[in-house]
Write a structure and sequence with these properties.
seven-stranded mixed beta sheet; 14 strands; Aspartate Aminotransferase, domain 2; three-stranded antiparallel beta sheet; 482 residues; binds pyridoxal-5'-phosphate; 40% helix
Length: 482
């Protein structure tokens, strides 16, 4: 996106696309939202989409498609085996990442399942800059462990560090020494590190960490689901890369790794996933898991239409005009809220604007899920559906005690090309109101708690009548119909 100059004021984020298909939105009155929230067990995953005004839960599978992606969907090659749609997709991935072998899978977590089954044994350790929920769940299910070695500054919420997703190289060396190479299943680096606020990793850090892994004979894996955001930051925050084309930066990153996997619900703007592998033997050692869990090797659980769409989407992910819209909208939102005093994760990352709930509602103890409670409050006060990314999204320790998250975040995702700046302004306005009334928000407790990935399907209740009191104050401010 070029910085388009304005005559009368400073530049604002600009959409470099126009809208051709729309979906009508519905803003329920606050009282109705309260009743929907109760039914959903104070879990925003359980709300019906029709009850939501601004769906900022995720950027996963809900990005707007382009006319070219839709056009691609009109020409799929439907075959159980040997679909040309798959070969077109694989050719595009080979061109972008320079890796020969490709295993298709129905989404990102399916790739994580295959990688965990292939490499993780009871007691083995997987090194990461930071975990992602599903990646970790597959590893721990098989008796493995995750070591998170992000730099300490990566977990400081208010910062101007440009690459908060960088892995700490000293910690990496020490961890390899401590664990022993034979106990390390692989090193997984996540681009655009999701759970710490969509924070990027520098090209230099990818290079340095992979050099260490290579020296010790440890397999290196890139989770490229959020690579497009990461690339935007490599170009705009890493001096050395400011004049380097996005495709060249991508190749420089890809060249460091043995394996790259992605959720095409994010990378590719469609719905699917895949694993790219450099080594032939390694590829053959995993292909039977695709046929067993996903589908035949030329569709892996994906529809041929989606494969055609993502093939175009991969190309669009290499265009600065496309990948800059999300981060620029996010930075705008973060800056406006930060100026107002709302505790935000700074600098803005990719994926969404992240609120630091531990400071926003500091009166709620971690055992009562402050980020979960704030997520519910934002739905009650504006119909905004965010996602809890804190203790609720963790799993309990083996002895049943809570594993408190190192960050309590509320994520307000900005799916790519979906929202306009006026909608972002609405969100900023409602977050400010909630911040000024934060003392009204209380905690949550589980009434149904699944053992694995509890944040998806668990049900909770409020620890007091705080939701009713919050809604009453909101109605007093905005009236009965909002
Ligand atoms: C970094 C990262 N990796 C993996 C996944 C899992 O992908 P999926 O939702 O397609 O299973 C996600 C999903 O949000 C993600 O953000």
């Amino acid at each position: 996106m070029p910085a388009i100059k304005f005559y009368d004021h400073e530049p604002i984020p600009m959409e470099m696309h126009k809208v051709k298909i729309v979906q009508q939105l519905n803003l329920l009155p606050a009282e109705e939202r309260l009743s929907k929230m109760r039914k959903a067990g104070f879990n925003t995953f359980k709300l019906h989409n029709g009850a939501i005004f601004m769906d900022m839960l995720t950027d996963s599978g809900v990005n707007a498609m382009s006319d070219k992606m839709l056009a691609g969907m009109m020409m799929p090659d439907d075959a159980y085996a040997g679909s040309e749609s798959f070969y077109r997709m694989r050719a595009k991935l080979r061109e972008i990442f320079g890796m020969k072998y490709c295993l298709p899978a129905h989404q990102g977590r399916a790739c994580e399942n295959i990688l965990a089954l292939r490499f993780v044994k009871p007691g083995s350790c997987v090194i990461m800059n930071y975990h992602f929920t599903t990646a970790k769940a597959h590893i721990t299910r098989l008796g493995g462990r995750v070591e998170e070695l992000v730099k300490d500054e990566g977990l400081v919420s208010n910062s101007d560090l440009p690459f908060k997703g960088d892995i700490d190289l000293d910690k990496l060396e020490a961890c390899i020494e401590r664990e022993g190479v034979e106990n390390i299943a692989f090193m997984r680096l996540e681009a655009g590190t999701n759970l710490i606020g969509g924070q990027p990793v520098s090209v230099q850090n990818f290079k340095d960490a992979c050099a260490i892994a290579r020296k010790h004979g440890i397999i290196s894996v890139l989770d490229a689901s959020l690579l497009q955001d990461n690339l935007y930051f490599n170009k705009t925050r890493e001096e050395k890369y400011k004049d380097v084309p996005i495709r060249t930066i991508t190749r420089e990153i890809a060249d460091q790794f043995d394996i790259i996997y992605f959720s095409a619900r994010k990378f590719g703007f469609a719905r699917g996933g895949g694993i790219m592998i450099r080594d032939r033997e390694l590829f053959h050692s995993m292909e039977d898991m695709v046929t067993m869990y996903e589908g035949f090797l030329t569709y892996g659980g994906m529809s041929v239409r989606e494969m055609e769409a993502m093939t175009v989407g991969f190309d669009e992910s290499m265009e600065m005009d496309v990948i800059s819209q999300g981060p620029q909208f996010i930075q705008y939102c973060v800056d406006r809220l930060d100026e107002y005093g709302v505790p935000m994760i700074t600098p803005g990352g990719g994926l969404g604007a992240h609120i630091d709930a531990s400071r926003f509602v500091s009166h709620i103890p971690q055992s009562e899920y402050p980020a979960g409670a704030l997520t519910c409050a934002l739905y009650l006060c504006g119909g905004i559906r965010g996602m809890e990314r804190g203790t609720l999204s963790e799993e309990r320790n083996p002895d049943g005690s809570e594993r408190f998250a190192s960050m309590e975040l509320v994520r307000l995702a900005l799916p790519r090309r979906v929202f306009t700046l006026s909608q972002v302004e609405y969100v900023i306005d409602r977050v400010k109101w909630v911040y000024d009334h934060r003392h009204l928000i209380g905690g949550l407790r589980f009434i149904h708690e699944p053992a694995t990935l509890r944040f998806f399907t668990g049900k909770l209740e409020a620890t007091s009548d705080w939701p009713e009191r919050l809604v009453a104050a909101y109605k007093e401010e905005f009236g009965d119909d909002q």
